[in-house]
């Protein structure tokens, strides 16, 4: 009996060693592939619109480009998504910027970017995690961009969310997709979608949860191109009693995020549709930071290529800048 137990123990240890070795090799393979194929975004504070010209060949023929975010309260995500939005608007002709935002609030922002009327600072200050200097600057830029254009060529702001959806989380994504489609069918222009990763992902491995992105991908097929954002550690803003509060977080328990943390670039873009992508058939655990503090991130399981087309990874991130910040 003792000899049999020793034999079983040896077999079990051998299996565990092989699994561990395979996992390490897989992570190393991923990091090596990213180092070879990623586009360095280290200067993520740059305001140069043309920094994202590499996107032209990927999205010029798409009608929808989704810009996800791992949290609604991160400065780097807001900054880099603003820069991408400016490039898509000024260089490729995107005319709609649709937010995970109440439709009524978006109408006020839309009025401002087309006419200059209204106090968008007041609206953003009152709108939770969109109380953001980064977003305020983006809307000001769109207003200036629109100022020399006829009404029919102006960039429009759209909101596809509603507070009435929040009481039913499992139905919310379907309702947001329906709301977007209803408004988009009238505008029929190239659109940028701005929302949380968990909503814009084309699919997840959670069978009971159908994302907004799933419904959009079912309708628009390969005309929907999605860029998700991810991070490894840092600090971000959440809402507590209606006010912004910052919390630190770490993705140490997430093997995928930890592997990407070893990539030579602190910030990078990687095209997941690359034919040689070693992740194409593997589950990716993306960092998932909620609007209210729930401790360190609970990773969101997604599948590269099936769930998203490209990834922007920023190793360490910081909280968004509130409009009422005295800095």
From TrEMBL:
Cited Gene3D superfamilies: EreA-like (biosynthetic domain), EreA-like, domain 2
Organism: Sphingobacterium arenae
Name recorded for this polypeptide: Erythromycin esterase family protein
One Pfam family this sequence matches: Erythro_esteras
InterPro entries tied to this protein: Emycin_Estase, Hydrolase/PRTase-associated
């Amino acid at each position: 009996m003792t000899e049999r137990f020793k034999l079983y123990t040896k077999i079990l240890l051998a299996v565990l060693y092989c699994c561990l070795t395979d996992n390490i090799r897989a992570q190393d393979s991923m990091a090596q592939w990213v180092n070879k194929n990623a586009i360095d975004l280290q200067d993520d504070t740059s305001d140069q619109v043309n920094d994202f010209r590499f996107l032209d060949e990927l999205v010029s023929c798409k009608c929808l480009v989704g810009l996800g975010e791992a949290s609604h309260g991160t400065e780097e995500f807001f900054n880099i998504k603003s820069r991408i939005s400016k490039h898509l608007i000024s260089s490729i002709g995107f005319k709609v910027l649709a937010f995970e935002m109440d439709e009524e609030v978006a109408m006020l922002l839309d009025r401002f970017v087309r006419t200059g009327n209204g106090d968008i600072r007041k609206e953003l200050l009152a709108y939770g995690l969109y109380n953001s200097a980064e977003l305020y600057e983006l809307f000001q830029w769109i207003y200036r961009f629109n100022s020399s254009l006829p009404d029919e060529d102006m960039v429009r702001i759209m909101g596809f969310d509603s507070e009435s959806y929040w009481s039913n989380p499992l139905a919310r994504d379907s309702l947001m997709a329906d709301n977007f489609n209803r408004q988009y069918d009238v505008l029929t222009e190239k659109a940028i979608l701005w929302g949380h990763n968990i909503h814009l992902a084309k699919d997840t491995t959670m069978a009971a949860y159908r994302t907004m992105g799933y419904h959009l991908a079912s309708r628009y097929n390969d005309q929907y191109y999605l860029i998700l954002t991810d991070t490894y550690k840092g600090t971000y803003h959440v809402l507590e009693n209606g006010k912004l509060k910052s919390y630190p977080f770490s993705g140490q328990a997430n093997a995928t995020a930890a592997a990407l943390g070893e990539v030579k670039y602190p910030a990078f873009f990687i095209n997941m549709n690359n034919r040689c992508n070693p992740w194409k058939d593997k589950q990716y655990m993306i960092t998932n930071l909620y609007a209210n503090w729930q401790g360190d991130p609970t990773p969101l399981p997604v599948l590269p290529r099936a769930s998203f087309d490209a990834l922007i990874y920023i190793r360490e991130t910081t909280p968004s800048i509130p409009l009422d910040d005295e800095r």
